[in-house]
Input
Amino acid sequence: MTANGASMRAVRRQPLGRGLAALFGETGAALTGDEHAAGTNGVRSVAIETIRPSPFQPRRRFADAELDGLAQSIREKGIVQPLLVRPAAATGADFELVAGERRWRAAQRVGLPEVPVIVRPFGDSEVIEIALVENLQREDLSPLEEAEAYSRLAREFGRSQASLAEAVGKSRSHVTNMMRLLALPEPVRQRLEDGALSAGHARALLGAPDPAALAAEIIRRGLNVRATEELVRRRVQTPAPRPRPVRDADTLALERDLATSLGLRVTLAPQRRGGSLTLHYASLEQLDRILRLLRKAS
Output
């Protein structure tokens, strides 16, 4: 390994903990030859059609109103911060977006033929991390988008929750709690994605006996997170009654015959070996009659 190669990897690993701003200020070893030709800050202009969005972008929704506002800003001031891209694989495009998809989409609305970019040779794991940091800094991701991004990093790239937390500047407990949201049933996740439930509501429902039914009740009653936690606590402490076993027709017929003969309500409970016979009395007179019958039978 050359000293220059080690320097490049160090430059590429460190910015995630310091925020995206550091990425755009880096120069020196991480710059490619084309970037040196473009200028000491590594910024160059490329045709907008040579850039494609990243398949690792955790954000799935881009609000039209938000893009319209950004497009108006670009009309007036241009693109102040360059896009961060990496060389694309053989997909018909020259570059793949790493950070700045909102600016790229807004620039298309404006009709800009070229956009400023910085090119870095990031790996797939780094692309996801950088996209996470960019969106988390602006709080742009929905809870499920954030949870799915963490899960993908852990599943596809073998990242531990501790390393994920360090990479995106969050606590380990935050990463753990967000990833747990993916265990919720689909109806609850849909309510969370639609904004009908908050992440706090969803976390409270993780321990509920029937999360989907409780989610509907929470929305109907307009409960806040604290009230939701109390509702879940009560439901967990008071489990639903066990269903009564289904009894066969022969057992029911025998109960009716005994009730007719004895003049009392009778309940039979057959078991694997033997069973139980219960005689129900409604008054002391009926109890005395039962005792007389038992003494006579003995």
